Amino acid sequence: MASINEQQLMQEMLTNTKTIAVIGLSDKPYRTSYQIAKAMQHEGYRIIPVNPNVNEVLGEKAYDTILEVKEPFELINIFRRSIYLRELSEKIIKTDANYVWMQQGVEDLSAYDYLTENGKFVIMDRCIKVAHSVLMR
């Protein structure tokens, strides 16, 4: 179970976010990333897909990298394998997004430390959809 401070941070992130950039968002409806992004879109969040292998997902133009996204977003949701987190974190710190959410099963303590040392608020190894359904009733 998440600590009280982690729960408070998740609630703050979900409350203060209008747009979520989803790194690794698939255009395949059977993929977890698609299902969760679609659910978050249904909850009123705008979704920006970040995946070089797709052109559009959930009616939104996809970008090859997080650094190519020019429109504002507050939260980055990551659906990539943990081995890519360090490389991704070096790009993420160059964005204006305050929040980074690593999906369940996605974790790297050195990337977490690097992101937090560079001013990002980070949730690691948690499902954003589950957190939303529990914390935002």
TrEMBL record:
<dbReference type="InterPro" id="IPR036291">
    <property type="entry name" value="NAD(P)-bd_dom_sf"/>
</dbReference>
<dbReference type="Pfam" id="PF13380">
    <property type="entry name" value="CoA_binding_2"/>
</dbReference>
<dbReference type="InterPro" id="IPR003781">
    <property type="entry name" value="CoA-bd"/>
</dbReference>
<protein>
    <submittedName>
        <fullName>Succinyl-CoA synthetase</fullName>
    </submittedName>
</protein>
<feature type="domain" description="CoA-binding">
    <location>
        <begin position="14"/>
        <end position="106"/>
    </location>
</feature>
